[in-house]
Structure formats: structure tokens, C-alpha cells
Write a structure and sequence with these properties.
- There is one protein chain.
- The chain has one domain.
- About 25% of the residues lie in helices and about 15% in strands.
- It contains six helices and nine strands; from the N terminus they run ααββαβββαββαβαβ.
- The chain is globular, with a radius of gyration of 18 Å.
């Protein structure tokens, strides 16, 4: 796996490389064990429901290189929808759109005895020095991925937008893999998280949105000084939104509860 300079965020590249190396050193290790050096003192928001999730990553995949000329029309998650998709850790997921920096799959126990293990998506966003918690949460919100495209210019009906081919590919991929629709969201900051952020994340994980838990992490080489990573000014940022353009005649695979008036 070869990494170059990426959007001025070398921390994301180093994190991807370290995760692949840690996964290869101990195949089948738990997600908590994989992320342990980055979770540090923020283990208190790690939900018990994730304790049995295991990692089988052996390689890194640069999405831009792997998708090539098809990149404008394909969703990066399509690279996980292959027979050995659970061995891939995706990086360089998007250069211009809202998206996490890293994505990979984990195994979780089957629904019934004798069934194969289920899968779950893990998405990681890495903050630069000036990034905010709100920006990290926005990039892990699947309802914000892959912008709509303009259908017509201003005229009698005004400017209209519709689903892009890239978003249609995302929707088709999730329809084929409903286990991926409620991911584990990992937010990696360059500074320690504030107490209020940790308390809010714990409430989100255990009470409000256990379907899409949030893990607060910090890059080990990050700064220990400066203002802590504060919680977003609008609490609703913690709340993910559903993937758009889902057919009305098909049940939406994301079962998110209504957003409360406050967290």
C-alpha cells in the first residue's frame, strides 16, 4: 500500500497504514483491539454491542486508483462489494465531496446459529488542525454523501437537481448489502475531546442512535495542548440522516429514530 500527500491531511494516510499493519499482525482481532491506541481515554463511549466485531483487513485500496476513469460514476463502497471485500481498507475515498477518509468491513455474529457472520461498515474521519467536530460528523453522515446533480438551468421551472449516477451506485450497493446501512462512525481528532463531547457521544450510543454509534479517537501524535475538540454548537449534528432517493415502494434499510429536540 503506497500513500502520497492527500488533501493536506497526512494523518489520514498514516492512520490507514497503521490500521492495515495492526490488522495484518493479528488477523481476526476485535475492532476495539484494532482501535485501542487511538481510543485512549475515550474508551468510555465504546458500546458493549461492538465488543464481538472482528477485523479481517489485509490490504489497503486507494479508491481513486482502483476506480480509475469510472470514479465520477461509482460509489467508493462498491470496492467492498467483492468476494474478498472484507480484506480491504479503503482510503482516498473522495477528493471533492463529503465523505469519510477511511472505510472497511468487520464481521459480527450471525443472526441465527449456523448462518455465516454478518458484516458491518466502519467509517473513519480524520480531522486536520482546523477541523471541527461538526465537520467530522458531517463526513460520516451517509445521508450527505454524493451530491445531487443539476438537471436543468434556471428557466420557467428554475434550477432542478436530481440523483447523480454516483449516488445511485451507492444506493444500489446498500440495497444489496443492508448490513452496511448502519455503520460504526469513528471520529479522529488532533486534540483531546472535551468532556461535553464525550458525554454527548455516550448518550448518542446508548440512548439515541445505538444503530450508528460514534467512537471518539485521537491520533497518538496529536497535540496535547490547545482547546479540546468541542461538541458541535447544533446538537443535531450528532444525528445521522437517511440515504436519499430511496424508492417509496421499498422499505428503507436505515431504521433511525426521530431526532429529539435536544441531546
Amino acid at each position: 500500500m503506497r500513500f502520497g500527500d492527500w488533501r493536506g491531511q497526512p494523518c489520514a494516510e498514516r492512520l490507514a497504514w497503521q490500521l492495515v499493519q495492526r490488522a495484518r499482525q493479528s488477523p481476526g482481532r476485535t475492532l476495539r483491539s484494532l482501535l485501542a491506541p487511538f481510543l485512549g481515554p475515550f474508551n468510555d463511549v465504546f458500546p458493549p454491542s461492538l465488543q464481538d466485531h472482528t477485523v479481517h483487513v489485509t490490504r489497503g485500496v486507494h479508491c481513486g486508483v482502483a476506480l480509475g476513469s469510472e470514479s465520477p460514476h461509482c460509489a467508493f463502497l462498491e470496492l467492498l462489494a467483492v468476494p474478498d471485500g472484507t480484506t480491504a481498507l479503503l482510503h482516498h475515498t473522495s477528493e471533492r465531496e463529503t465523505a469519510p477518509d477511511i472505510a472497511f468491513l468487520v464481521h459480527r455474529p450471525a443472526s441465527s446459529v449456523g448462518d455465516p457472520p454478518r458484516q458491518r461498515l466502519v467509517i473513519i474521519s480524520v480531522a486536520g488542525q482546523s477541523a471541527t467536530a461538526g465537520q467530522l460528523l458531517d463526513s460520516t453522515n451517509m445521508g450527505r454523501w454524493h451530491n445531487d446533480q443539476r438537471l436543468m438551468d434556471a428557466g420557467a421551472g428554475g434550477i432542478q437537481y436530481g440523483e447523480s449516477s454516483k449516488h445511485a451506485a451507492l444506493r444500489a450497493t446498500l440495497a444489496a448489502h443492508p448490513d452496511w446501512c448502519d455503520p460504526v462512525r469513528v471520529l479522529v481528532a488532533p486534540r483531546p475531546w472535551s468532556k461535553s463531547s464525550r458525554k454527548t457521544a455516550a448518550r448518542v450510543n446508548h440512548t439515541f442512535v445505538p444503530q450508528q454509534p460514534v467512537l471518539l479517537a485521537r491520533f497518538p501524535s496529536g497535540s496535547s495542548t490547545g482547546e479540546p475538540m468541542a461538541s458541535p454548537s447544533w446538537p443535531g449534528m450528532w444525528w445521522p440522516t437517511r440515504v436519499r432517493h430511496w424508492p417509496a415502494d421499498s422499505p428503507h434499510p436505515q431504521t433511525l429514530p426521530p431526532r429529539p429536540p435536544s441531546l
